[in-house]
Design goal:
alpha+beta
């Protein structure tokens, strides 16, 4: 059965496997954790290791408009869905 109102989807339907991911979280002691909660994280999935590694390099770089002393306060972890990457169902 198809989606009756595809324009209402918040994210596109994923039709390919995306077993390689990046988990983005906050370091302990970060003051932003008081707002979003200590367990906050976001996961981004990619179909290949190369795409994930390229995205990780882009995410973790120093932003071009940052001030001289600014440091990103995010933790990036490479993750893998072993069942998808190994073709195990």
């Amino acid at each position: 059965m198809g989606i009756s109102q595809p324009q209402n989807l918040t994210a596109p339907v994923v039709e390919t496997l995306r077993p390689y991911g990046i988990r983005v979280s906050l370091p302990p002691g970060d003051p932003f954790r008081k707002i979003v909660g200590p367990e906050w994280h976001r996961i981004h999935w990619y179909p290949t290791r190369e795409e994930r590694d390229d995205a990780l390099a882009q995410m973790s770089r120093r932003h071009q408009y940052s001030r001289a002393g600014d440091r990103p306060s995010l933790v990036f972890d490479k993750i893998e869905n072993l069942a998808e990457s190994r073709g195990i169902s």
